[in-house]
Amino acid sequence: MVDVIEELEAAEPSPVGERLSLGVAARLSRYLQVLTQARKMGRETISSQELSEYTHINPTQIRRDLSGFGKFGKRGVGYNIESLLAEIRKILRTSGQHNIALFGAGNLGQAIANSPIFADHGFEVVAIFDSDPAVVGNEIGELRVHALDELQAVVADDEIVVGVLAVPAEAAQEVADRLVKAGVKIIFNYSEQLLQVPPEVTVHTSSPAVDLLFALYFYLA
Amino acid sequence: MVDVIEELEAAEPSPVGERLSLGVAARLSRYLQVLTQARKMGRETISSQELSEYTHINPTQIRRDLSGFGKFGKRGVGYNIESLLAEIRKILRTSGQHNIALFGAGNLGQAIANSPIFADHGFEVVAIFDSDPAVVGNEIGELRVHALDELQAVVADDEIVVGVLAVPAEAAQEVADRLVKAGVKIIFNYSEQLLQVPPEVTVHTSSPAVDLLFALYFYLA
DNA sequence: TAGATTGTTAATCGATTAACAATC
DNA sequence: TAGATTGTTAATCGATTAACAATC
Prior knowledge:
homodimer, alpha/beta, Arc Repressor Mutant, subunit A, Rossmann fold, 2 domains, 9 helices, 18% strand, disordered N terminus, DNA-binding
């Protein structure tokens, strides 16, 4: 069985429809980040060597990852940024526009709402919520701050696929519960709260301090 | 040679002084995050199963990772959170206090300065910088906002090991250059800017949008 | 042509998993 | 004791790397 799959892949480089392994999907996502930014800077091509410097992923592995789906590069030159972006988006099936609801209109919430970091990758913050009645109704950018009670309706109307939590740890679980109830399957948690959710819901917790500890280990050692 | 090393490890479970592999160090850092938060919630023990739910790391691998350094768990019970925290900190050699300089006193900078997310892991923001003369001198929490020109002196005086960039993309490279000049070896970049630094400096770029794309792939597939 | 960089092979190494005895 | 969970083995799978011919 394994042999058969290997033969198929050898014959047909792109196993379209096959589910990518976790590792490959994670790496492709990171290439996307660098390519997006390199394009913004006016670059037209990039080599696996350069991609490696920015992602800390071995250049051979980058070439290997990409060549599994087709021949996207030009020997002696590198990869065309624009076309590689399109190819990877196609592979990840994330070419579309995706709507985000943001929770918490404090410093962090405002920073996220005004940052290009999500917009650059096809995510749009279409709604902001806050539990503080004094803040509800305010405008942040072009968005009015909603009360939490409007969540269910907004999620349905605006086709929201991701909830981003920029609330204090104490408030995070309640918002998560409401998101789950409204049918949202991906939660991005900027608080340190450990969230309890049903198995079909994915929580990604941002952990800058953990990333720092990790970097520090290699600096100290 | 390989056989000799394997024998040594079998005899002496904790290869103290040995450099951890990237993967192990990354996973240990993540256990630290969950343990820290679980302790905050008043928990006293935790099982590999629970750790797995919060980290998305296979429970067998968690037990394997830990048992490589000693027998920290109790069968039928789980791991004592307090003592496991101490053990992992010892393994990662990051038990101490580490000083951070924060750049950018805008929404994101203020959010970071006021968040417990770094403090919980032994990082303290000891200095804030901003390039806007109108902001320099203001107080954020208990810290006065410095001008960028004071960077070199502050890094030396306050033993700063990490620079956190919460500045617009356009300003990030200049701050990075100054940090490098001042001898800082770890830069945490919250902007989308691709930073050019010498090889001995580590840049970690925060990429929430990339993490979201990754989560979305598995949701859509 | 000369230099650069991809695509690909082959070999190794580490991650992952299932399973289960040990033991709290 | 019965139930739970660790520590550990053994087997498999995927990641990683060096090397280099192909080719722009």
